[in-house]
């Protein structure tokens, strides 16, 4: 049984009814139509959003193209200073940004605050990294000088998901503009506001107009126009595997390099020799984080048979105690991002035929939460590992649990989905930890941990249907630049 509490509000609503508009070449740009930004905690509108489309995208890409010539010639040290100034401005404004993000997404305010600080860290990290992003010299003949240069592609287009809007934007735009590209961002329609605020702060930090543009609007209009625009030289996409595949097709038609950061079905594997209470606490926290709407959510618990009952009981007890409420009240668990997402989660649970729902399984019954897109923490044991609930991304606070007998069995279950984003191994046996890390098909493997804050420094990306290319860490600088080799006869 989930306990619900009422909280005194800890933050003030933004009360923002002004139209959220695109930000192009340093200016707010209106669109003919608008759509409502719906607060998932109440179902009410947070204000209108400009429905950008082909015209706004073309304006933004043209502005970005015009800015590339000068921006790529700005010395890396000067670019570094600007990016660090932007990091300072984001950090100083974290509280206001967190309120906007919490309202748009429904996420608890403290998580939104952390997201703002992680976003600042991306700009600082790539600011610090860019003036040491060296090329190589290559020894050839004595009278030949060969070297490589890392060059920007030109205009980068970024189509983003709604679950971590500030972080997703920063981890893409910071490295992209650090290496000298100019960017056009299309935020998700559910969460447009912080992207526009970031573009404004970038202007204040000294990012030249046209280097960082935002076009608000719907995926099939603004998103699709950006993906198809002939002036875009590189595409970054964060979102579902289905739309990612569409983007990859469009990029292939134009032979444009692409980074795809898609969905996940990440396993947490708990062996009997692990510190079980730390493992259970982390498993529970990882599925509550952002209401399970995290690409890298640890949504599958695989637990060794002998200890399964004890671990499941511990996890269930922790999830039973969560406090649900609007994001601004900073509960443990906020609403899902939308009614659509709530219905999707419910329909996936309703379709379960093998397994037992031992916790949750529905929206909460508390009438105070009925207007929002809430979903109770849910645990399902003994699911068929080949069933959709164990194979497909749920994107809700829903944990499925299976048992395993030995390492081989654990690896077969862990690698038995089309995805490969994260995995965690809980064990005190160091040799087993490294054996498992080598066998698991995942872009990141954690041992006795899950996730690492924002993971700004850690290369991140998927295998299989979790996508390709890497963001974060130094690898993102390579992802957003191309190597040019220069050979000179002396
Ligand atoms: P989505 O694919 O529905 O939408 C993502 C973005 O694509 C949005 O901006 C949307 O407007 C746009 N879009 C939709 N249709 C489009 C089209 N036809 N052409 C161009 N753009 C289009 O995904 P979502 O529901 O916003 O986000 C949830 C998904 O994102 C989950 O699958 C999650 O795992 C994934 N995600 C992955 C990562 C990662 O790093 N791997 C991070 C966050 C989220």
Walk me through the structure.
- It is a single chain.
- By secondary structure, this protein is α/β, with parallel strands linked by helices.
- The chain is 38% helix and 20% strand.
- It has helices at residues 54-71, 76-92, 94-105, 109-130, 165-178, 193-205, 219-228, 241-254, 276-288, 308-320, 339-350, 388-391, 407-414, 430-439, 475-479, and strands at 22-24, 27-29, 34-38, 45-50, 137-138, 144-152, 155-159, 182-186, 212-214, 234-238, 258-261, 267-270, 300-304, 356-359, 378-381, 398-404, 419-420, 422-426, 444-447, 463-464, 467-468, 481-489.
- It has a 7-stranded mixed sheet, with helices on both faces. The chain has a 6-stranded mixed sheet with strand order 9-8-7-10-11-21, sandwiched between helices. Strands 5-6-22 form a 3-stranded antiparallel sheet.
- Helix 1 crosses helix 7.
Looking at this protein, list some descriptive labels.
490 residues; alpha/beta; Aldehyde Dehydrogenase, Chain A, domain 1; Aldehyde Dehydrogenase, Chain A, domain 2; seven-stranded mixed β-sheet; six-stranded mixed β-sheet; 22 strands; 20% strand; globular; disordered N terminus; binds nicotinamide-adenine-dinucleotide
Overall spatial form: globular
Tally of helical runs? 15
Derived from helix and strand composition plus strand pairing, the structural class reads alpha/beta
**CATH class wording of the largest domain:** Alpha Beta
Task: Give the count of structural domains.
Answer: 2
Number of strands: 22
Q: Roughly what fraction of the amino acids lie in strands?
A: 15-25%
Helix content: 25-40%
Q: Let me know the CATH homologous superfamily of the largest domain.
A: Aldehyde Dehydrogenase, Chain A, domain 1
Give the overall average pLDDT: 95
Q: What is the CATH architecture term of the largest domain? A: 3-Layer(aba) Sandwich
What is the CATH third-level topology name of the largest domain?
Aldehyde Dehydrogenase, Chain A, domain 1
Measured on Cα atoms, how large is the radius of gyration? 23 Å
What's the N-to-C terminus distance?
Answer: 78 Å
* Main sheet strand line-up: 14-15-16-13-12-18-19
**Distinct small molecules bound, one entry per kind:** nicotinamide-adenine-dinucleotide
Task: Catalogue the unreliable spans.
Answer: 1-10
Largest sheet: 7 strands, mixed
